[in-house]
């Protein structure tokens, strides 16, 4: 873990490869990587990513939390050092603590339920909620608003079984060498098309809040190993030209990296070159022999993305807007089928 002390906007990288139980001929435990950046020094409203793994059961959790700066811009108080904190800053950290508490209890009780996570988050938000009720009301007024995007997983021979839990527009994904990046959550927004969500950024229809009803969506799935599971806030995927470009960010940095820490550093460097928001990302790579194996298995996929999506968009970026729009649409039409193959279907009244 590296967290520099500075007055400029900071970043942090966490990484760990569980090799304690590795024996020759077996596959090491999961590799976890977390990345976090902020736009304003000491004021980043994304919480640090959550990465947890329970060795005895083979269960783990990755999660990210994006405090909603617009709806939660009101002050929530000051720290002992006199630093003002917004409701968005507080809510993302409280939701992170609540999710970690829920996961620890869920592993002990062998019970992973969205309703239990919802109750834990509500209880923790109520505990820190200001006793002085604001008189401002309206559709934009939310107390302690944040998103949650979490993936719990269980490692079994040759596969990983996961549960996706989320509220808001932070996203969960699986990534495999053949199928590429696939979204396994669905934004809580009226629009479901990823390209339209990227270009228009419609308002959320559901997010965690201390003063409004919200729900935790739940979806289940499984995938063969080796694979990567990841969660990210919209600072990572919301400022690129196309959905394929986010996968290109992940894989172009991976195949250049020398180890997990270097991969995290390259992700920080790359996301800071294009984002306009705080960012957080948590990933777990499962079933790879070592970092060289992880990198080598995705090299062909990275080259495909560069050739079929990245290069055409770079050429179009130097042209007029009509050509850029045409290239973006063409990229999405080629990419969409694989990207959406595991995406949950919409249901009446939203997912629960």
Q: What would a concise description of this structure say?
A:
The protein is α+β, with helices and mostly antiparallel strands and 352 residues long. The protein has eight helices and 13 strands. Strands 1-2-13-12-9-10 form a six-stranded antiparallel sheet.
Number of helices: 8
Q: What's the CATH first level?
A: Alpha Beta
Please give the alpha-carbon distance between the first and last residues. 36 Å
Assign a percent range to the helix content. 25-40%
Q: What does the average pLDDT come to?
A: 89
CATH level 4 superfamily: PPM-type phosphatase domain
Nearest-angstrom radius of gyration?
20 Å
Structural class by SSE content: alpha+beta
Q: Categorize the overall geometry.
A: globular
Instruction: Supply the CATH architecture.
Output: 4-Layer Sandwich
Number of domains: 1
Main sheet overview: 6 strands, antiparallel
Low-confidence stretches: 1-5, 132-139, 348-352
What is the strand and helix layout of this fold?
Layout: E1 11-17, E2 31-37, E3 50-54, E4 59-64, E5 75-78, E6 84-86, H1 87-109, H2 114-128, E7 148-156, E8 159-167, E9 171-176, E10 180-183, H3 194-200, E11 217-224, E12 227-232, H4 234-237, H5 243-254, H6 260-274, E13 279-286, H7 291-317, H8 321-339
Antiparallel strand pairs: 1-2, 2-13, 3-4, 4-7, 5-6, 7-8, 8-11, 9-10, 9-12, 12-13
